[in-house]
Amino acid sequence: MSYTLYYLPAASSFSVHIMLAEAGAEYKAIAVQRGKAGLETPEGNHLSQVNPKGTAPALIHNGTLRTEAAVIGRYLAAQFPDKLYFPQEGEEMWEALELSNYLSTDLHKTHTPLFEGLGHIAEAKEKTFERLDRTYTYLNNVLEGKKYLLGDKISILDFYLFNVMLWADMVDYDLSKFPNLIAFQKTVRERPSVAQALKEEGLA
After folding, report:
1. Per-residue model confidence (pLDDT) at position 119
2. 33-35 and 27-31: which strand pairing?
3. What CATH number did the domain enclosing 74 receive?
């Protein structure tokens, strides 16, 4: 059965978009937009009619709704274990779980003030950038001597990190001081699935 993804361009739903393309899944991607009362579908309906949380991503598969980018990533990895990697046992699994949580909380949520109108307030922006410095420094260190977060094999975590790194330009945050992250970003961007998702979301 095909997948239906409701996405907000460049938001965390972009990582799910990449994963669907990477897996070679049959999918339909529907862009939502910001309205006066929240996210709206192309028909002008509030996204809460699809996802009670009113947030993107919202993925429908076999009539079941899945939400939260990190969780959807795990779901898709279970559906396409040969195409989307997430370790299922041993020390690497625990490392992956820690990184997954870190990406979806410390990294992702740190950007929130910058997208909620506080980015123009100098003090708030400075404090947020300081937190981003600490977060990206940690991830830059994780990538030391590695091609991807878990080593030489790309995983769903890498698509999430690549997604969030796209926000740096949107908030005028300079990533150039993190050479490992810059090299990582270049490597992931070269994947056909990323090019496909970028094009479909109008970001290419």
Report:
1. 55
2. unpaired
3. 3.40.30.10
Domain residues for the domain of 30 are 3-83+193-200
In total, how many domains does the chain have?
2
pLDDT at 25: 97
pLDDT of residue 125: 83
- What number of CA atoms fall less than 13 Å from residue 71's CA on the CB side? 8
Q: What's the whole-model pTM score?
A: 0.94
Q: Which amino acid is at 187?
A: T
How does DSSP classify residue 46?
B
Residue type present at position 112: T
pLDDT of residue 113: 82
The contacts found for 66-73 with CB under 8 angstroms, 24 or more apart, are: 68/104, 69/12, 69/13, 69/15, 69/16, 69/104, 69/160, 69/163, 70/100, 70/101, 70/103, 70/104, 70/160, 72/16, 72/19, 73/15, 73/16, 73/19, 73/100, 73/156, 73/157, 73/159, 73/160
Same domain? 171 vs 119: yes
Residues 113 and 70 grouped into a single domain:
no
pLDDT by 10-residue block (mean), the chain, 204 residues: 93 97 97 92 94 97 97 98 97 97 95 73 84 97 98 98 95 95 98 98 92
> What is the per-residue pLDDT for 120?
65
Return the structure tokens found at 116: 């909620």
- Domain of residue 166, CATH code: 1.20.1050.10
